[in-house]
Model the fold of this input.
Amino acid sequence: MQTYKDQDTRQDPSLSTIPPAVRQPPDDQPLRAVYHTTCCIVGGGPAGMLLSLMLARQGIQVILLEAHADFDREFRGDTVHPSVLEILDELGMAEQVLQLRHTKIRQAALPGLIKNPLVDFSRLKTRYPYVAMLPQADFLEYIAGEAQRYPHFQLMMGANVHELIIEDGKICGVCFQGKDGAYAVRSSLTIAADGRFSRVRKLAGIEPIKTSPPMDVLWFKLPRQPSDPEGGMGRFAKGHLLIALDRTDTWQLGYVIWKGSFQQVRAAGLASLRQSIVELMPALADRVDKLQDWKQLSLLSVESSRVRRWYKPGLLLIGDAAHAMSPVGGVGINYAIQDAVVAANVLSAPLRAGRVSLCHLAAVQRRREIPTRVIQGIQTLIQERVIAHGLNPQQVMTVPPLVRFLLRIPFVRDIPARLIGFGVWPVHVRHRSQDGRLAG
Done:
């Protein structure tokens, strides 16, 4: 039998009875070390990072594995909604996070279709009546820095999980490839927070239920001038939709296309795309020539999905690993973070006691599944009834008179703002950390 070198500096006493045998990584590459911890979280996105911090604050040993070597890359979304800002406030971090560079979106509109704002966050009863457009890389760097203040937290970057450790039908950890070799982490609980293309979910044999939304998105940036309008907006014209989000000195733009039609758009050429952008947002005519290469655009494949069961013995899925969201409303990050808070609320005591059961894991899904299904249902409805209609060049995009009338009523405009800002119901931090602050 192969003898492995154990990394005991963070040994979890609750795991002392687990035998040391771990399956070999590919090509019989020997493991350089086997780490032991209470909770192994795979995926250093907002949900995984914040959950790690909340558990570490309570003295629970956590190892966080992130496949990338750093956070310096382009992310799908940078929206931090009022729900998350309130969670950060309960954790004592909101003011520090808001010192990072960001812009505030207080309203979203459909110019040319609806006179009144489509969504008005400024009327929400909260200390944070806006969506903060905050670069996700900066957000993750800050949370990671906070977590690293606690001795129970360990972050491993460049850690690519390639295998689950399974014993007697229970997942007891993972094997991963690091920069200098293969390693393993043995844990009481493994949490998959590794996104919509979750490697852990695939290894566990959990298949998501997929829908077929009618769109993909070309994601890119153009300079923003001080004289440009503020906030967020969407514009329909000639079977196209352009989404614009204010990021102070740039516009984050999403050019919505029919699903699977990117090759046709590319074949038409960048000049055709630039012309379409100007038709949708004429103010960009003086800077659209900045788009000179297709490498400046990212193609986001819009898929909404969820798994039937978020857990197996020793494993829990949260965030996009459990339910991939459509970009409609930009709520994906916020629902993932709410999952993390509920997971911390439910699992902290069982993790400390070393007795995490399927009932505890099921409780996390039970508290988060209804809000997830409701918002995904709303997203699908908007995509099928509004966006698909707007992407049809044979149809003229109009707003029914009844909808125009209802949107003049502030109370009615509050409903989408509430759903986007907070979800079906708010999530709050319940426990206090060892230093006395609310911790999850």
